[in-house]
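Protein: histidine kinase
Species: Deinococcus roseus
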Amino acid sequence: MTLRWRLTLLYTTVMGLILSFIMLTVFSVMTRIIDTNIRTDLIRSMDQGIKVNNIQGVPYSWTLNFGNAWVLLSDLYGQVDVYFFPEAELPNLTQQNLEPSHLEMSPNLARTLASGKNLQLSTSEYAQIIRNGKDEPYFTEMDIRTDNQIKHLQVIARLMPVQLPNIGVYSGVVLLARDVTEIEDVFTALKTVLFFVTLLAIVGMGITIYGVSARALKPLRYVQAAAETITEKNLSSRVPVPNTHDEVESLATTINDVLARLENSFEMQRHFTSDASHELRTPVTAIGGHAGYLLRRTNPTPQQAESLTIIKNESERLSHLIQSLLELARADAGSVAMNLQPMLALAFMEDLRRELKPILGQAELEVGGQEFAFMADPARMKQVMINLVSNALKAGSSKVTLEAHLEGKQVHFVIRDNGPGIAQEHLSKLFDRFYRVQESRSRDEGGSGLGLSIVKTIIDAHQGRVWFESKVGEGTRVHVLLPYKEVVVEE
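Structure follows.
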């Protein structure tokens, strides 16, 4: 995941949590305020009803008169329940006796409920009302079903003396209820609106943060793009330093300092390799020349001849190594000169076959493909092909095939062999300097581990590409791609 996406997700999540917390807090406060107002209104309405309907001389009591108080409280539902027990027995009522008798109901409640129905509290709620006593009202909520809908009620219940005309005074429960269905619907709609507003706000913030982060990270992308173009061949290049006075500017400056140190280190390495190779060439050549002279012009004993032969062969091997190091040092310095000339593909490969015939032994070298003209450095391309074919022969191949094809704007050479193949873990390292697939074989055969590095250097100088395809036991294919430029060759 990119830094831009991580920043977007992080800040969007944080802002979303903050916004959600604010929305939930606002919704909770609004709900609490309205609920408090409804309860306050219910208390005030009950007090008004008691003033109209109380027992003469007894505050907070109720007289059953079937209508007087309900005219005043016409916007509420009302109900009066009575316990036909002495007041002193109320705290000792059993679970079965907690439900009182329903004696009076407001006209609008009677019209709303079906016949024989009433506001029914649970026995635990009646028990709580009794525990609250006369001084503390009890609040609850309930749903009642009408003919076409379900109404949600906010209910206040209070224990108080209730006078039954011509019968006596008993303890009873007066209930008042307000229909808050519409308020609940409004809150449900508000909850939905707040949810979608919060969701849209989070999405909007995410899009905004994504855009803003792109602008903030723009200098960093410039630094990244410039850094990606820098290789070991152009260490003199530098990344742009944005004038942002922040961490990005500091990072670009640090990268340039590191590049400067790397360039200096590579220069020292190149100079050392080049100077050492030049200094070693003369004495190594002299050693090989004198060993050859002694073999030709003297009569050494067999043991002496063997030693001189070893000296001569090793000096030649060392000379080849020095020459390879010099070529790589020139390539690292960017001074690989290409002498591009028109070449004919089949004719070039036929010349290769004739030149390689002395080293083929029992192996076969076949040439195929199509004839076409292309531009390349003949000497360098011959060096590439000889190196690749020699590697195939050293690996034990008995048949090597060279093919050339013109594929659109590319020249495609394929070197195919029937050798033992190369394991997959080696393929990505074959062009590394001094890398050997089989350490012992390469040393015995005189390989330095630099041949394929030189091959890649030459192909890179042609602006081409080279890679291996191989499986153990199925041989190896080497692909060389060069850019094609149409050439008009006189017959």
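Remarks: Residues 125 and 390 are 99 Å apart (CA to CA).
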